[in-house]
């Protein structure tokens, strides 16, 4: 019999397959986020207050105000330029995510992830090599960021599809809450690694994470198994009747966007109805605003700490990890609560409501914002993507995940851009923007929360055929 799975996995016992796959995909997406983090740490090094920096005696430069800055970020518009860099990555990521699910359905996940991680390692390293090659062109850094954004879309739909294939619905919220801490773990490791080099040679802040994610790509090629059936394991049970209350009674106008995405992905009519009727639109738009908040912190928090608290770049990066530590706890807490109550939407809504007045408290805000973010991008995506109305089309999980995370990535692109435009008027205005986004995320889930509460009270939802 010809083998169709990774050769390295044949060394493992059948008793540890699922645990190994969970660990492997955790490491993969940790590496993805680890390689995204350096830009936020390096920002405070590219533009500094040169009056506090000891000037080398042999340096013959007449401009005393910007001699220590990295051109082209040495001018007063440096915050706008940072916004351009962020958006080159995030806009490319948002656009690519809508099509990533389509490729994820048609290509072997092992090859898809391996190539994606190797490519991401290349482009992450190219950004850092700009330091050693003495490149001062904004277009170079923007191009590298955009290309990296595109190849990073290979990660999320593929790893969620793989985990969804291996794990059933029993305690999916808890399992994926723990598993989804890879986002925060990657951010923390990325901050610490980038911070270790940022003051001496910021190029290494990108090159080292680039090497790490490239190494994960090699590991993926030899060990990842897409489905239990590939190694003669019994697939998990995906379909539970409790998800019926996700069905809706109307088609909102904004479904046009989801319809377009689904058509591009060549999905079946059943999947289109599934996306319309089961809350994909609401969760997607909620994730848009949740990721707006999360990614604004991801890309701008170290710079904010450096500017307001006057920390050096390394100390600012270390302090910013508090947000991600809270994110680990929040993701697990959201998963446990939603498993116990059966209310994904209600859990997300309550946490976002509490998060709004706490945006300046890093640990609590990280938990309350990243909890719903983690729940939507993992357990909710897997619930919807493996529902019984898909008639066994488990590969559609990759596309449903891409739709939800792709919509969320629009918010991830808008948030840092708005921060770059608003921050020159005062950091308080940035926090007002984040509070507004939190409130909008809550409102978008109000209908699903109402349906969940009705279900707890013993009411049933009439489905229209």
Automatic annotation (TrEMBL):
Domain Major facilitator superfamily (MFS) profile as annotated: residue spans: 24-454
Reactions this protein catalyses: D-glucose 6-phosphate(in) + phosphate(out) = D-glucose 6-phosphate(out) + phosphate(in)
Keywords noted in UniProt: Antiport, Endoplasmic reticulum, Glycoprotein, Membrane, Sugar transport, Transmembrane, Transmembrane helix, Transport
Location in or out of the cell: Endoplasmic reticulum membrane
First-listed, main subcellular location of the protein, grouped into a coarse class: endoplasmic reticulum
GO molecular function, one term: glucose 6-phosphate:phosphate antiporter activity
CDD domains associated with the record: MFS_SLC37A1_2
GO biological processes: phosphate ion transmembrane transport
PROSITE patterns, A to Z: MFS
One GO location term (cellular component): endoplasmic reticulum membrane
Its membrane topology: Multi-pass membrane protein
SUPFAM superfamilies: MFS general substrate transporter
Pfam families reported for this sequence: MFS_1
Transmembrane spans: 12-32, 81-99, 111-132, 206-225, 245-268, 280-301, 321-337, 349-369, 430-450
Any coiled-coil regions, as ranges: none
Family: Belongs to the major facilitator superfamily. Organophosphate:Pi antiporter (OPA) (TC 2.A.1.4) family.
Protein name: Glucose-6-phosphate exchanger SLC37A2
Lineage of source species: Eukaryota, Metazoa, Chordata, Craniata, Vertebrata
